[in-house]
Design a protein that fits this description.
This protein is an alpha/beta fold. The protein contains eight helices and 14 strands. The protein has a seven-stranded mixed β-sheet. Strands 7-8-9-10-11-12-13 form a seven-stranded mixed β-sheet, with helices on one face. The longest helix has 11 residues. The chain is globular, with a radius of gyration of 17 Å. The N and C termini lie close together (about 10 Å). The C terminus is likely disordered.
Length: about 270
Amino acid sequence: MRLTIVGCSGSFPGPDSPASSYLLEAEEDGRTWRVVVDLGSGALGSLQRFADPSTLDAVLISHLHPDHFIDLCGLYVSRRYHPRGAAAAPLPVYGPAGTDRRVLAAYGPDAEADLPSVYDVREFTDGGVVRIGPFTVTTRTVNHPVPAFGMRIEHDGAVVAYSGDTDSCANLIELARGADLFLSEASFIEGRDEARGVHLTGRRAGEAATEAGARRVVLTHIPVWTDADTVVREARSAYVGPVEAARVGGSYLLERVAVRQGSGVQ
């Protein structure tokens, strides 16, 4: 299973990155399966560096803030109006309840008749499990002001845990338990951002990784006004494993347990 960072800027695109988006790929049955986790503002443009959007097998939306879902509108245009013809089948899109209505509100009412032929929108549930080709995705609600989900994505014995947007919570630990790679938001800085129930600091992300026994941490959703080196240092103060900040184009290969020695990540 390969994870590629498509976008990692928190809350809105930065000069070097779109907002949140992550591409997962795995080989099975003689083909490459591709799933995108979140498709925030600006992410569709970046995605085209790494994959043809027409080859996606599903999109998973953690929550309905624009920096995580808004480029579903652009993908709708690509799938509906491409000169080579509309997509032959609707693309599965998983997200919180009301994802279809939120996309329509963002795009405009003229999409209402065609949306079901472009997107097959399905609801995430707390503790739910969905299977997309070779991927198994477990979702749990997390600690954010709007309904939001973290994800545990498994393939052939390898595990990527994704926090989505969240503050510390028990479900986050459950999702990250023993993960090969914990893709964790770190929007806040200790001593600067006092609000709770919104985002993690680097330290709180490190504490979660330690409690969960995750093997590697990649910090993401870092806003333009937050220094990435600072949140990495905070995470390292609470976690002894490998920690780095996400960057667009960063790629991680996670291999099966049977052959993994150490981190299992390249």
